[in-house]
Amino acid sequence: MKYSRSHKKIIIGTQNGVLAVLPVEAELLDEDEEEEENAGKEKAKKVIDVPLQIIGKYHTAPIVAIKNLQGSTQFITISEDQTIAIWEATTGQQIASIMLTDRPTSMSVTHNGMVAFVGTAEGAFLIFDISTRTSLRLVKQMKFFETSIPISFIKTSDNGSIVMIASRESERIFIISQKSSENFTIYGYLKMDGYILSLQYAYNAEGLLYAAAILSNNLIQVAFLPLSKAEDRMNPLPEGVFHKFVRKVDRGTNMILTSKLSNKFFVSGDDRYLKQYDIFPSDTYLGVDWRKPPI
Fold first, then answer.
1. Domain membership flag for residue 20
2. What are phi and psi of 31, to 5 degrees?
3. What does the pLDDT look like over 216-248, one tens digit per residue?
């Protein structure tokens, strides 16, 4: 599910392979309402009654991911039917598609919308040139994990510099260049202190780029991200380089959202509450304050 480039529609991929559009425009945050909610006042509920607009059934299995292609009216999808496809949003027509040999599990695209990164259930990492929209050309394939575990997360940075790759079955985050001019060079990998349940980019007060992850041991962990190739890429980056910090989260938390504008962390999980945590974690792994509540 993704907002359109104009933020006036939500593009939805369904379990039965149907693509649909929900015409719900994104709204700006009302700071007065947020202050009232923080003061304990009950926020008025808003009911949105709009019909779901079915574009058509273009995949034969659940749609795994949808991404907008920057600077165009097109988007790209991956599905459990082992296909990747590019679509024209204004007409709903398929422009190109390609069949994979394995089930895709994650996807992202470069900042300029010219390259697509796809992860599979067996741990393959595929890089496609999609600059010519009518064809998808495989330009590189990598394997990061020693065992065949699925790639759960592929995150491209907004500044067009790096890509993070991770699995829910591993504690490692691999970092590669997002630039074709650098041949998508592997910079190295971070070893977190637990399996990764959710992964996002975060920015500290100085604007430095960090990885922010929810771990399997009920922690948020942030780590500074390298922007160049490490000397030793066979071993994890030393902690003196990427500076890991943590804070405790409630049991069952499995999703993290971050705000580039406010540097805030929002988390959710099994209890279905959306919680806001401190501006930035500051504890070390051996000095975690297990009593610290959300703000």
1. yes
2. -65, -30
3. 998 999 998 878 887 777 788 887 677 888 888
